[in-house]
Amino acid sequence: MTTLEKSVLGAQPFLRGLPDHHLDTLAALCRHVALPSGRRLFDENEHAGRFWLIDAGQVVVDTMVPGRGRLVIETLGRGDVVGVSCLLQPPFLWRFGAVTTQPMQAFEFDGRGVRAACDSDPSLGYKLSRRVTGIVLRRLEATHARLIDAYARSGLVP
Fold it and tell me: Cα-flanking dihedrals φ and ψ of residue 72, to 5°?
């Protein structure tokens, strides 16, 4: 990874403020990719082997609803992280699906490599764990708000 790419990587909201030695470690475990619109990144219940920091473009996170097809859960864009399931608990399966809805440029990380780096360097592991926890919490809160809104609009609320 070039110095320019490393500086761009370090400017990503998810990684901003990490020490240079942690950025060096992570830079060695990623590559910058360009993906076309309509590219399915993953489907739920498949092995989660990587994650992306979106540099440009857009991705929708979705789930399959029996009898209805795919339901969009969330739309992610520049500065967001997609695929954090590969950093969570074994068996490292995607909990949802994701597809690009615009051409996407992103830093793509090897999940196994990042987990191994976190095991080798507990400081890195701690810092990434706190950041992943923040993402999961924000997404849970957003889902909670959407569920309340949908429930209220359904007319089932007294």
Answer: -75, 125
Q: For residue 105, is it within any domain?
A: yes
**Cβ partners under 8 Å of residue 34, min gap 6:** 103, 104, 105
List, for residues 31-59, the tens digit of each pLDDT value.
999 999 999 999 999 999 999 999 999 99
CA geometry: angle 105, 108, 111, nearest 5 deg: 160
What is the residue-wise DSSP string for 2-17?
Answer: -HHHHHHHHHSTTTTT
34 beta partners? 105
- How far does CA 143 lie from the centroid of its chain? 16
Return d(Cα 124, Cα 51) in angstroms, integer.
Answer: 17
Single pTM value for the model: 0.88
Residue 105: which CATH number? 2.60.120.10
